User: Fold these one by one.
Assistant:
Number 1:
Amino acid sequence: MDLGIGLPNAVPGATGEQLIEWARRAERRGFSSLGTIDRILYDNYEPLTALAGAAAVTERIGLCTTVLVGPPRANSVLLAKQALSVQALSGGRLTLGIALGAREDDYEVSGVDYQGRARLLDAQLETIRQTWAEDRVGPLVDDRPRLVLGGHADAAFARAARFGDGWIAGGSGPEEFAEMAGKARQAWKDAGNEGELRTMALGYYSLGDGAEENARAALGDYYAWLGEEIAGYIIAGAATDLDQVRQYLSAYEQAGCDELILFPCTADPDQVDLLAEAAGL
């Protein structure tokens, strides 16, 4: 199983200098990918913009939006061009992970219909794939970005089988991942696709001094909209010591995950080294 690390693009107060140093360290320490998470109405860096910055200071590490909230970006041709631009700037390292998103306020502030978001995403994916195939918009690339779909419903698994190269789970834990990944693989097989569906997952970690406090602050703020009980469940699921990190890695690997991306709860670049040491990189 590959191990990626999330950029702190959604940690409130993160500076551009921290994101750039984070990307450099992540490449040096041997992580497979840099991930980004997305919100519209929040104190975060836009994912493709953050990855373009990371591309400029790295040469090997993969770049993933895990995931981008698709439908609020209503100009799908422009989104396809932005993805192609990062693909070209990075020398072919982009994975475009995309999903519906669950925050109504992200849709409201974008002037996009929340109730029709599934239909909008399907149309968006059609447009993105067509735009990439036609080679009329954006820089020419040898290979289009890998396309990965997120979501936990049957419709999401079918969408990944129809449009994507892979499927990604949110921070649901390894047992839930294993169950959902089985459904995603079955949908892939039922659609008559060749080869294997790539499966990915994300989780959270916080290590070193103040680990639990940092997890509580960052995740409590980001997930406050879900209510105290669910936000508390997510906070409790963050790996806050070396043993928990290793248990996470073992459990996801046994569940058949191809790549796990762990996201930080603070923007301190020392967190890159702490995770690398915990994972034996």
Number 2:
Amino acid sequence: MKQQAWVVFALRSALFAGLTAILGKIGVTGVSSNFATFVRTCVVLAFAAAIAGLRDEWTAASAATARSWTFLILSGLATGTSWLCYYRALQLAPASLVAPIDKLSIVVAIALGVLVLGEPVGWKLVVGGGLIVAGALLIGST
């Protein structure tokens, strides 16, 4: 059975997010968490620019609406704030504690998807979200 492309990309995202926690924990040792976030952001910017250039996708910027620009900028501000907090947390606690708590973002995304985007709610979503919260609370209480 052929998987849908989004599942493959979502699994890759999980893999690289897991690597991010470990690599970030090692990298933030001995430097300011804000400087570490700056370096990470520069690398992400260069990497994304290279991919957009290689795929000849720079022309897509002219097609973006003011609404798209507004929400992309707000998303960037949310990402930056998240990263600043994440690296500071990694300086203060083990990655094995920080990463699960950080993944409560999944529950936040589920709730906002339902409340803001009108996405459907099913029992699997509720139970799965509840298990994520329970797992984060269990791990975080050690």
